[in-house]
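Fill in residues.
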């Protein structure tokens, strides 16, 4: 089974991650795959407790499970088993008893899914598609809430997005960390194969020194808040992913839920992008939780916008698979 297992990794690494850091490593051995967090790729400013890193692992895990099901395999998953020398998610593969009729569309969506930060056209998502997207959350550990753009109850969420965005762009450490992961030119993208592509964020392809000058001199906190508000108002729907508890297992489940939801949206021709600022700034996150009346311990950790993009973007870069593989 090992050759089949190795064929699953290229689909796992198509998962999204914060700043496209790709913070994962894999080992493959006979009937099992291990997914390890790569802490050398953590984001200590925007993600000091690493919850977003483990959300990314959950996204990679869900892609792997979907790809396995497409190959006629069933995956049995253990989060951070005690008998492993290092913290990891362990996946055991075995032959499935029957075909999963719902997996083909999700599998086809894996290479098509992208975070599209560009303009959306404001069209509403029809109710049947909205229902399919919401029903894609299969994790009991995750609560998913939807806010329709144009409804009054979205206004407090937009206010918190604006406030958190201004806080972040007034923080030199946040800006420095973001800059370190933006790839401003095409040669830089080709050389690094990770990070945020400047052109996908609306920058022209420019040398790093010029991109840094633009980011530090021309991008202003209020202007960034305005840009995020405009992006939300052009969208159709906000989705908020809430972990019922704040620990690594729940963070992985958030990633699994998010990935299945956005793959479902992608299969329906619906784009998505993060507007995660109020989840990233802890005091704002607490206020968001209070505003929503969440139970003690529940954490709103991921906020995205959905809608119909005016155009697709080039695929985000990914490192070659051999760079994320470990020996079993």
């Amino acid at each position: 089974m090992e050759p089949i297992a190795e064929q699953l990794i290229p689909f796992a690494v198509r998962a999204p991650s914060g700043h496209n850091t790709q913070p994962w490593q894999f080992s493959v051995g006979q009937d099992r795959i291990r997914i390890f967090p790569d802490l050398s790729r953590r984001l200590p400013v925007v993600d000091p407790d690493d919850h977003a890193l483990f959300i990314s692992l959950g996204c990679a895990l869900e892609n792997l499970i979907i790809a396995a099901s497409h190959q006629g395999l069933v995956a049995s998953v253990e989060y951070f088993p005690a008998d492993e020398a290092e913290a990891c998610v362990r996946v055991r593969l075995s032959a499935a008893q029957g075909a999963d009729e719902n997996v083909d569309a999700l599998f086809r969506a894996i290479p098509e899914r992208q975070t599209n930060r560009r303009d959306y056209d404001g069209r509403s998502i029809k109710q049947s598609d909205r229902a399919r997207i919401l029903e894609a959350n299969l994790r009991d550990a995750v609560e998913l809430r939807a806010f329709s753009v144009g409804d009054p109850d979205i206004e407090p969420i937009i206010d918190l997005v604006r406030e958190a965005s201004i806080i972040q762009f007034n923080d030199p450490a946040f800006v420095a960390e973001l800059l370190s992961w933006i790839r401003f030119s095409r040669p830089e993208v080709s050389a690094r194969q990770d990070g945020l592509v400047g052109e996908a964020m609306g920058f022209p392809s420019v040398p790093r020194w010029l991109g840094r000058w633009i980011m530090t001199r021309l991008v202003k906190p209020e202007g960034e808040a305005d840009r995020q508000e405009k992006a939300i108002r052009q969208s159709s729907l906000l989705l908020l992913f809430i972990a019922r508890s704040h620990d690594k297992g729940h963070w992985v489940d958030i990633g699994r839920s998010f990935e299945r939801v956005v793959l479902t949206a992608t299969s329906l021709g619906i784009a998505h992008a993060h507007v995660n600022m109020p989840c990233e700034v802890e005091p704002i996150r607490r206020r968001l939780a209070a505003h929503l009346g969440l139970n003690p311990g529940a954490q709103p950790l991921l906020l995205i916008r959905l809608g119909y993009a005016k155009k697709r973007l080039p695929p985000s870069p990914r490192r070659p698979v051999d760079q994320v593989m470990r020996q079993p």
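The first strand starts at residue 24 and ends at 29.
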